[in-house]
Amino acid sequence: MTKIKIDQRFSPYQMPSVIIGTIVDEKPNFMLCTWVSRVNRNPPTWMASINRKHYTMNGIRENRVFSMNFPSANLMQLADYIGITSGRAADKSSLFTIFYGETNAPMIEECVLNMELEVREMIEFPDHFIVLGNAVTSYIDEENMTDNRPDMKKMNPVIYTGAEKQPTYWTLGEKIGDAFQLGKEFKKLKT
Ligand SMILES: Cc1cc2nc3c(=O)[nH]c(=O)nc-3n(C[C@H](O)[C@H](O)[C@H](O)COP(=O)(O)O)c2cc1C
Q1: 78: Cβ below 6 Å to ligand 1?
Q2: Is the pTM of this model over 0.90?
Q3: Which side of the chain, N or C, has fewer Cβ within a 10 Å radius?
Q4: Which of 11, 27, 54, 131 for a ligand 1 pocket mutation test, highest count of atoms within 8 Å of Cβ?
Q5: Is residue 169 within a helix (H) or strand (E), and if so which, with residue range?
Q6: Cα separation of 53 and 65, whole Å?
Q7: How many domains does the chain divide into?
């Protein structure tokens, strides 16, 4: 196989689509964020990379709490809208049904999974802040559970890819195998 060099800013294909919620200027505000990842097991710590110019950053700096809300495929039109519209230009506070948990981070009822997080640390990069937050509480819609476990098919989560010329949203495809098990089968074959 021939490997070719590509632009090193190329983003690969699997990124979550997460709606970040904050209170800014005393109003709930939401933005779409795909540069998101879990970074520590215990305490459960997450990172979101957020452009320093975003209105959202004002709220995170001030309150030191924020939410991560995971939308299903059916919410993506609205999710995309809040990803192209700043809270400085439009009031995004009444687009969703909002609920609160133990902090004043606004969470979205229409999302299948919600987390409220306390800021642990913010790392400054030239154009983004890496915001590290510890999850205080997580919520899931009861109807998306099967046998007491979250059911990915029911949740219908969204993947974003910036890999193609026109960035796109995708839903999950077929399950291809069991994690932590496929390797065991390979181990058995080797011995
Ligand atoms: C698909 C998509 C992914 C995005 N991912 C990020 C991201 O990871 N980090 C970021 O800072 N902005 C990201 N944005 C841009 C913000 O969501 C957008 O600038 C938003 O209007 C900021 O809102 P605010 O000014 O109210 O905070 C993304 C937008 C879209 C449409």
Answers
A1: no
A2: yes
A3: N
A4: 54
A5: strand 168-171
A6: 18
A7: 1
Q: Is the previous residue joined to 157 through a cis bond, with omega within 30 degrees of 0?
A: no
Which residues span the domain enclosing 66?
Answer: 15-190
Task: Provide the residue type at 120 as one letter.
Answer: R
Q: Which residues contact 157 (CB under 8 A, 6 or more apart)?
A: 16, 70, 72, 112, 171, 172
In a domain, 9, yes or no: no
26 conformational bin, left if phi > 0, alpha if psi -120 to 50, beta if neither: left
Distances 133 to 8, 33, 50, 74, 191 between C-alpha atoms, Å: 28, 14, 13, 27, 43
CATH of the domain at 167: 2.30.110.10
Ordered per-residue pLDDT tens for the chain, 191 residues: 999 898 888 877 767 899 999 999 999 999 999 999 999 999 999 999 999 999 999 999 999 999 999 999 999 999 999 999 999 999 999 999 999 999 999 999 999 999 999 999 999 999 999 999 999 999 999 999 999 999 999 999 999 998 888 999 999 999 999 999 999 998 999 88
Half-sphere exposure in the Cβ direction for 99 (13 Å, CA): 14
